[in-house]
Amino acid sequence: KLGGGPTGALAGKHMLVTAGPTHEPIDPVRYIANRSSGKQGFAIAAAAARMGARVTLVAGPVTLPTPPGVTRVDVESAREMAAAVAAALPADVAVMVAAVADWRVATEAGQKLKKDGSGAVPPLHLTENPDILARLGASPERPRLLVGFAAETENVVTHAKAKLARKGADWIVANDVSGDVMGGHLNAVHIVRAEGVESLPEMPKDAVAAALVERIADALS
Ligand code: CTP
Ligand code: CA
């Protein structure tokens, strides 16, 4: 469409999306990470932009191109992601797809850790990262619709229901990551709401994104 403002079911809405892993520094050359590729979150941002939303995509370290029409903010660590999310508010809807590292090293070493020749290993004392979704759920700036993701390897729906309550989210999109979902092209998700669970068949991540964004547009209309 040339000329005029954005059209589409999400025109005039601001969607905030987090995607990808976070990297938690150990020292200047090492970090803790996870297998998230960012594909599902980027697909959601792309689908929302196609439906006319203004989209802010807060992305951890991934190797994906920025979807057309999306404003991207790159971050490394969970704490940087939390700050970028706060700075992007207000939003009508937030979809928290990022695989945020649960723990970071309590004190990042200023210099590269070295072997001391004795075979002794450095102790890595971990501390918990801020829960970005739970903070948003309890915030005065809480988006009208707050959607979390849940990566589970067992009891997928049961765990997702617990997260719905714990995080103050409206929906949790649960996916079983026991197979090769992380990094892969396909995903099978269960959309868990207080009212019930909708299970979608396994499909490409782009199709999961389109289905989810359609439901988001319905919920916001
Ligand atoms: N999340 C977040 N900040 C964190 C951890 C998780 O915003 N520090 C968000 C994720 O982006 C996702 C949801 O919370 O939308 C659930 O993440 P998940 O890792 O499945 O849940 P946790 O609460 O971390 O529980 P656990 O990893 O122990 O299953
Ligand atoms: Ca986690």
What does this structure look like?
Pathway: Cofactor biosynthesis; coenzyme A biosynthesis; CoA from (R)-pantothenate: step 3/5; Cofactor biosynthesis; coenzyme A biosynthesis; CoA from (R)-pantothenate: step 2/5. There is one protein chain. The chain is an alpha/beta fold. The chain contains 5 helices and 14 strands. The chain has an 8-stranded mixed β-sheet, with helices on both faces. Strands 2-3 form a two-stranded antiparallel sheet. The site of cytidine-5'-triphosphate has 16 residues, from α3 and β9.
Radius of gyration: 18 Å
% residues in beta strands: 25-35%
DSSP strand count: 14
Sketch the major β-sheet.
8 strands, mixed
| Overall pLDDT level | 94
Low-confidence stretches: none
Q: Strand order of the main beta sheet, please?
A: 5-4-1-6-9-10-12-13
- Count the DSSP helices: 5
Identify the bound ligands.
cytidine-5'-triphosphate, calcium ion
Family: In the N-terminal section; belongs to the HFCD (homo-oligomeric flavin containing Cys decarboxylase) superfamily. In the C-terminal section; belongs to the PPC synthetase family.
GO molecular function: FMN binding; metal ion binding; phosphopantothenate--cysteine ligase activity; phosphopantothenoylcysteine decarboxylase activity
EC number: 4.1.1.36, 6.3.2.5
Pathway: Cofactor biosynthesis; coenzyme A biosynthesis; CoA from (R)-pantothenate: step 3/5; Cofactor biosynthesis; coenzyme A biosynthesis; CoA from (R)-pantothenate: step 2/5
